[in-house]
């Protein structure tokens, strides 16, 4: 890219803060963290949108119990057609998953993916938002590049788990965020699945995936570790059943999301 003539970025003026949730590796619970963040911010009185940008593997419809709602309604506004997002927990939600059957694959090349991504971002009637949380796919591919090159992004949160194989991949995501041309500020690291605590024995901690990964990344890249979120035996069933609100019945899980929310609000002043 010619630094003297950079590509103009799209500014969604009705959205105060666009926050990416990224990870270098799948299976770290990034979508659950993104959805939980949106719920936690909404509970604090913020106006929040959640955009599922994982074009090839959308999870948000399942997490939010929106699998069978059909396609979004189109609304005429200011001379053009816009999509009305679905709402859950006071959050406005858009996902490519609303346009496909769950078993149907999106077999698209990069340019098509980028065009669909931009269309979903710009042609959704988000209204006035304090935060748009963007759940990105694993890795560092076309979707991330499109988001960071085409839109004004206020920052990103990095999700990891404690084990070394996850950390190795997350380092690539951090490298992408710190790229001098397309990068965006890395606002913090979230260590998900930090330990296992049985619901009936809240005083116990089992470090099933090792420990210290979040701290290591924080020290290496000088990015604050803002939260460690544990797991218990009910979380998977709650997510699969679209009962995400049950996450916050666990006091340690809720405390982790509260720390994320307080960190974001403190940085952005909302």
Total individual domains: 1
* Main sheet overview: 8 strands, mixed
Number of H/I helices: 8
CATH architecture assignment name:
3-Layer(aba) Sandwich
| Straight-line distance between termini | 34 Å
How much is the average pLDDT?
88
Radius of gyration, rounded?
A: 18 Å
Output the structural class: alpha/beta
Question: What is the number of strand segments?
Answer: 10
Query: What is the topology, as strand order, of the major beta sheet?
Result: 5-6-2-7-1-8-9-10
- Give the CATH H-level superfamily: P-loop containing nucleotide triphosphate hydrolases
Helix percentage: 25-40%
Outline type: globular
CATH topology: Rossmann fold
Unreliably modeled segments: 1-5
What's the level 1 CATH class?
Alpha Beta
Order of helices and strands: EHEHEEEEHEHEHEHEHH
**How large a portion of the residues is in β-strands, by DSSP E?**
15-25%
